Here is the input.
Amino acid sequence: MPPTTPSFPSPTALPEGSHAGFRLLAVHAHPDDESSKGAAATAMYIAAGARVCIVSCTGGERGDVLNEALKHDPHIMRDIAQVRRDEMKAAVAELGCEHVWLGFVDSGLPEGDPLPPLPEGCFALEPLAVTTEALVRVIREFRPHVMTTYDELGGYPHPDHIMTHTVSMSAFAAAGDPTAYPHAGAAWQPLKLYYNQSHSGGRIRAFHDAMMARGIESPYTEWVENIERRGKRHITTRVPCGEFFEVRDRALLAHATQVDPQGSWFRMPRDLEREVWPTEDFEAALAYAPVDEVEDDLFAGLGTAAEADEMARRQDLALTFDGRVAV
Ligand SMILES: [Zn+2]
Here is the structure.
């Protein structure tokens, strides 16, 4: 059965200024992940008055240069870590968000059979208490009402993406507990945690079909063939943010070493994308507020910003939604 195109709850962005006082913390593995996953939603929430802070768990030091035009640039090869810091700064400026480096070292994507061991001192090998405390510190300082991260499979099997999930779950559980990491700030319980699901099988298929129908060469043929092998996710939340796809593109292109401007990302005409799939999508994982079957807002059900602030400081909250998948 091919996935069917969902009915989108609302095709237009949430009203400007409607989210003043709300805060969203988006946890990512490497610089560039924030621009390929949830970036248009980030820009939309900022336009709606919310504050959005991106956390990059690692510096992306072990990323390959993926842009053909820059592959042999000696400046880039000499100091890729600095180049990626500069690229991140430019992407953050495009998105208009805030940003924190968590300070851990990229684990790299191991390749080969058998796989080589992960490099000593990398993010994926850090003790969980160390990485959790670092993220708890950020949570207690920024005080988000909502967090986003990756699902238990990491979205794709990079050790840093899987560890980003693990650390996010651990920090979400600890941040509101005053007895956990007492030196990392005053307890603050984020009220909802979501997984990024922007690259679902349904969206890829919708893109592929729309491009084929209009005679545009689709870069998704192989993906579509493999869709059935991907597990089905339970998408709860479709955030209308089509007006911000160009902002997302500019943020992506700011990561010049990682993103090929001629690559498949940019083949889909943006007007067609807005017509076919005008949202970025999320899967609710944990919440202390009700989660509706089809939401269009990550902050749904939290009341006013002042009410959400008050709730996040309470110590008697009980989970009302648990969408975690056992691994
Ligand atoms: Zn990544």
In short: The longest helix spans residues 80-95. Residues 29-30, 33, 158, 161 surround zinc ion (CB under 6 Å).
